[in-house]
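Protocol step 4 of 6: structure prediction from sequence.
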Amino acid sequence: MCFNQFASMTYNKELYMTPRDFLFSIMLENVDRKLPKKALTKKEVDKMLDAASRVQAGNSLFRHFGDDGLISYTEYLFLLTILTKPHTGFHIAFKMLDIDGNEHVDRKEFLKLKKIIGKRKETVPKEGATDMKPVAEGDDVNTTLQAFFFGRNGENKLQYKGFCRFMEDLQAEVQEMEFLQFSKGMDTMRREDFAEWLLHYTNEEANEAYWENMRKRIPAGQVKRNSITFDEFKAFCLFTNNLEDFAFSVKMISEANRPIGMVQFRRAVKIATGHDLSENVLDTVFKIFDLDGDNCLSHKEFIGVMEDRVLRGLKVQPQRGITNYWKCVKRETLKGAQEALRDTGSPF
């Protein structure tokens, strides 16, 4: 379980990630932790929460917090959904939190949703146990997200504008970190670096054909004018968060199961996202995935690769796909739902 592997803190015998842990869980395949998980005192937690209640929003928020923050397991699941949502899904996510429909979310509503996501309360097994399970925190324990959204004493309201900005900032922060990781800290990414990022989480056996294609068709050491900028990279990330709309658009503008050319591909992206991909990115994508050299892509196979890319470090086996990832999240969400609804009433 990814949460257990990366979480580095415990409080009241329950397991928590720090904001740094969360970013590492997305960026890294695994972590080789040399030290035991740190048991926090109430004084340390209070200091973290006081700081979280005063911090300003921004696209380096999680890096600003670093190890000075607490993220519960249910919040971890919530943050994962944010990373894979298109902008059109932000309002739906907010409505899910806004239980009474008054256009803002208070801490009580946030806690009720978390109660439904993870009803059962479990203690942390001893260090090194192989059957460790994530824990769902009790309502009496505040966290960094709660302090940031609602203030130290839970008195603030979360408006849609602030919620939308938080989602955009988190996506932008992870995108920036990924860009810097694969561009080796440079302000542009070589096309071979972009290909490495694109194929990083996909099936290794299938990858070999794409890597061979790339080696044949993309010369090593591209000149700067052919490098990919961060803005081009962000536009492609926006596209990957709209894969379902893209797949639907492809079906509308091309014959069933037929390969699509660059013009059709560009049009489908525009329909799905409202934005264009640059010529540089489009050319790179086709040079990687056009295996038979006919300037067309098998959109079904391409979408399969992109689904693996969207899952990033979410630790789902590639062959299971994004649909099965959401089934897994739903199973976690529904574990205690029936009991929670008996206690609180339906939130919808």
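Step 5 (inspection) to follow. The first strand starts at residue 9 and ends at 11.
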